[in-house]
Amino acid sequence: MSLSLLLEQILNGLQLGVMLFLMSAGLTLVFGVMGLINLAHGSLYMIGAFAAAAVAGATGSFLLGLGAALAAAAVAGVLVETLVIRRLYARDHLDQVLATFALILIFSEGTRWLFGSFPLYLDIPAPLKGPVTFPGGFAYPGYRLAIITIGLAVALALFWLIARTRVGVRIRAGQADREMVAALGVNIARLYTMVFALGAALAGLAGALVGALQSVQVGMGEPVLILAFVIIVIGGIGSIRGAFVASILVGLTDTLGRFLLPLAFGMVMEPSAANIVGTALASMAIYILMAAVLVVRPTGLFGAAT
Amino acid sequence: MIRERHLNALVLGALLALPLWGFWAEAPFMITLATRAAILALAAVGLNLALGLGGLVSLGHAAFFGVGGYAAGILALHAQSFTPMMTWPITIQGTTSMPLIWLVAVVASALAALGIGALSLRTSGVYFIMITLAFGQMLYYFAVALPAYGGEDGVSIYVRNAFPGLNTLRPLPFFAICYVLLGLALLLSWRISVSPFGLALSAARQSEARVRTVGIEPYRLRLVAFVISGAITGLAGALFADLNRFVSPAMLSWHLSGEFIVLVVLGGVGRLLGPVVGAGLFVFLEHWLGGVSDHWMIFLGAALLLVVLFARGGLIGGLTAGSRS
């Protein structure tokens, strides 16, 4: 096993991690601030990817596609929040699960209606198509490197927004005591819509960026949604910092597990069996990680102890 | 308005009358639909025990359904190919006998529920929902990564498994088996709900603090309920495998877990026959709307959304207009 192969896998894990952070950041904010479990977050990811693929396909510009993804996901977020989600804040979790599950059915089937069952493809923008060669001869795909950069930049911006701006103060205050915030004259309804739209836009961005690596198809948001849930369980509900640490942890565990576990089993058993056992175990690795965190800290790494 | 007891009798009667009519009218398709409804209802009866009585919103019950299905698929596969399941430390052969398969399915899904429940029940609320979902997904990926049992393609059961004294290849006897098992599960579910255990479980749902105060540990109650619930859903999975003569990772998909919750809620959460009404309605909608449009899921989604937002209490709640007993 060469060092550059390992380095490549670590970067792949990092890339998966920052993508998952874009997904889980919005989800954990909505959990933390509004106390809502939103299964339809994966649909917003899918909407972002479809908007990007459709607009980039029609105009030939990846950047326009990216803008369309952000806009489409944010608009969908505002619509969903004002029409449906708003009525669910006071309801129990069962109602929230059901209503957002219904939204998934509507979004998935609606997308299939509009775009058909065949996947769309989003081209990687030309300047980022080739690999970037580092000093020392190590080469890594430019587009994936760009995703890592964008993801980290968005994470920094989000930390800044939450910690340093007036909006961030309100979001944190809304998390701590929503009645008091409302009593102090903050328009809670508008704050909620804004938080939801922000989360939706981040999910749409993630969908558009990943859309150029995979095919854009109905249901693409659901595996990512479940990973985002695992991340929130590991990181602790409502914690952006926890979501970031857990995203990177899950991204690396998943990618390196798939790479290293078959190799590790190969040392003690024959290659074909090692491959089967290693692959099966690797596909379960992040859930085992989640179970381990649960045993040690049921409220997650950065969650408030109850 | 009708009494819930009379409505219950009506529902069970209707579920029995439909396939009999299908048999008389030589429409075996009707019998298959009713069988599908009975099996989904059985799975939802299992879930209703955790969800309705225990207040545990499990979004991972398809895992137990799938474990039961795979138990049936794997045992049948080995029996059909005359290969032992394992040879070490003891030799275990496959089987095509339904009672034996049910036993294995119930034990396997109960064990899965014990493991998942022991970890998930350490938490509550949204954590519990997400964790049951995540563990369900873990088993899904595990099934996909099983090349010996078809991986993503699953396992085919070439000939439906056998029940002593009945010809299960014909639709009506197989329906009868599913209907009787559904009836037994409903009986068990009712016995549990009126037993001291069920009352304590229900009390823990309504006020955890009070139950703790009288010295009962809610964790244990919930774990036992979760295991029974998983085992019933696992039995339904084994029957579903025999109905379709096919098992695949799709049986473990989280969409199915969501649909089970939908079945329970459409009928009415915590009502004895809620799952049966929900499953009947679901199969009817699937069949009827599916015939109207390929995109029937949109209408199902919209209907579900309206029910959740504006018509709580489900169908039984609406028809009896009574508060939940």
TrEMBL record, chain A:
InterPro entries: ABC_transp_permease, BCAA_transport_permease. It is a multi-pass membrane protein. GO terms for cellular component: plasma membrane. The chain crosses the membrane at residues 16-37, 44-62, 68-85, 97-122, 142-163, 191-213, 225-252, 273-296. One of its GO terms (molecular function) is transmembrane transporter activity. GO terms for biological process: amino acid transport. Keywords: Amino-acid transport, Cell membrane, Membrane, Transmembrane, Transmembrane helix, Transport. It is found in: Cell membrane. Belongs to the binding-protein-dependent transport system permease family. LivHM subfamily. This is Branched-chain amino acid ABC transporter permease. It comes from Rubellimicrobium roseum.
UniProtKB/TrEMBL annotation, chain B:
This is Branched-chain amino acid ABC transporter permease. PANTHER family: ABC TRANSPORTER ATP-BINDING PROTEIN, HIGH-AFFINITY BRANCHED-CHAIN AMINO ACID TRANSPORT SYSTEM PERMEASE. It is a multi-pass membrane protein. It comes from the Bacteria. Keywords: Cell membrane, Membrane, Transmembrane, Transmembrane helix. One of its GO terms (molecular function) is branched-chain amino acid transmembrane transporter activity. The keyword tRNA processing does not apply. It is found in: Cell membrane. InterPro entries: ABC_transp_permease, LivM-like. The chain crosses the membrane at residues 7-24, 30-50, 62-80, 100-119, 126-149, 174-201, 221-240, 260-285, 297-319. GO terms for cellular component: plasma membrane.
